[in-house]
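Lab meeting, action items carried over

1. Structure of the two-component assembly. Owner: GW. Status: complete.
Input record:
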Amino acid sequence: MIDLAAIVSQVRRGMIPAHVYADPEIFAAERDRLFARSWVFLAHESEIPDPGDYVVRRVLADSFIVARDEAGVVRVMFNMCLHRGMQVCRAELGNASHFRCPYHAWTYRNDGRLAGLPFHQEAYGGEDGFARAGQSLLPAPSMGTHNGLIFISGDPDAPALADYLGDFAFYLDFYTRQGPAGVELRGPQRWRIKANWKIGAENFAGDSYHTPHTHASVVDIGLFREPKASKRIQGALYQAGPGAGTTYKLPPAGNGHGDLAGQLRYVGYPDAMIPAMAAAWSDRQRALVADSGFMPSAATLFPNLSFVHNWPQIDADGTVAPFISLRQWQPVSERETEVLSWFAVDAAAPEDFKRRSYTAYLMCFGSSGMFEQDDVENWVSITDMAAGSMARRLTLNSRMGLTSEGKPVKPPLATFAGPGVAYQGFGEYGQRHWFGLWGDCLSREAR
Amino acid sequence: MTAGQPLPYGDPAHLAAHQFLVEEAALLDAADFAGWLGLLCEDIRYVMPVRVTTARGAGFDALADMGHFDEDMYALRKRVQRLATDHAWTEDPPSRTRHFVTNVRTFRQDEDELRVESALLLFRSRGDTREPSLISAGRTDLLRATPDGLRLARREITVDESVLRTQNLAVFL
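Predicted assembly:
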């Protein structure tokens, strides 16, 4: 038996028992205490734009239909027939007015309500034997949306999504609200990796330290100019609410202090998009980029939704194009994760920009991405090493940026425009923040 | 499905196309990626749409706007350049690959171009403890006659899984 309280106490000090990355008991605790109760991302509204559109997504073993009903309302329903438990919808996306169970033809409207069952009168004696009224596929216990992102929680008493997102909502806008139209998501690419789900989530929450070495090849070939150690160490690492992330320090823009447009042009946004970005963001959000001079790059919203924003060179002429990806680390087991990786782009962006941005995404991230390939190599190897008995004797040091007394090596940035706390330079602040939230979840009751 | 009849298997154009695919596979399995680039036309398009599970009547089983690959020559050159660096960790140690190419059907597209369909099974093994992976796919290629012989002008890869069971696509199909 594992001593969960002792493990949580260790991770709160930045010392990570190595076996947590491959331990079936830890995985069971994560399932029952964390994923059964936390807000978890399922889909984006742009994936189901029209009435009847649906996607089927999972939270661990639970399959959900995420559908837009005939009235345009987004519904999240447990994908299990009320009668004998068959999976009602077995496609992963499509458009349907009704879902009919293949077993006995019980049929549900796309808002989940039971519309009919064969021989209701003859077999059940009508409403007396089985009251159809009020019967519905089980809805997700809690559901919420933010910037079109659809989240559910298995906890019917979950805090409101907006309260949960808290200060991290400020940073979410950089990825999911670049204009009044919002973003559209494409994909996802889906693939399975033999890695524990936590490793990717931690990495995106604050590991700027890996970039210069893990991703040396993309600098070698001139794909992305920023990951050099000398540049990466200038970035700010922030922790805010249920999330944390990394940024790159931008060079002083042509017009100097406060030049938002210059900074956005530097990372490749066309002039046609810049006024909408400036209008969509608050004074503080504009100031993060224009005055503090930091451009958000990777981030993780606890527990398992990550974001990335990079700006590689996509052609021989040196064209720089930014892209955004959302990615989910969907746990399969303690040693396997399904990665869902979406390309996101402002819905109102010019078509030629969307094309460039998509090219940039495919070259860098996703199933074939030249960054992602080397990330996953590390994560698979960690999981493999963590599975044996020796790993139970090893506690990994995740204290970078802390003195022996637990004080920051450097004070937080005093002039960082965003909420939360931010540090410049390398440090495992974001990973510890993430693991602190993990510890909070594993310390609560199972549900 | 492709309209029209495939060339007879004894047709010199079919034999040349088949030999092209086998020779190409040999280059890939020998990790001669620079040599492989030499088989591509400068205007190559190399695409691999994301396959999805849909109802039989849905009318589509791939995403129109999302691929695993959507490459031009610049992007493919970058991938090959990367593999040649000392820092492409995911292929160092390298995969042992075997490209099995079969079910080759050749169609006369026009005077200079052949459309060639083939089935591909890629076996990939890395390290000593990991499970190997398989990628099964159909391919539709456009082969163009050039003064240097046939060259690949377009490849569309129809992968047979919606959720890939391989660590990444640091390989060419």
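2. GW to write a short summary for the group page. Key points so far: The interface with chain A takes residues 48, 50, 52-55, 58, 63, 65-71, 74-75, 78-79, 81-82, 85-91, 129-131, 162-170 of chain B (CB under 8 Å). The radius of gyration of chain B is 17 Å.
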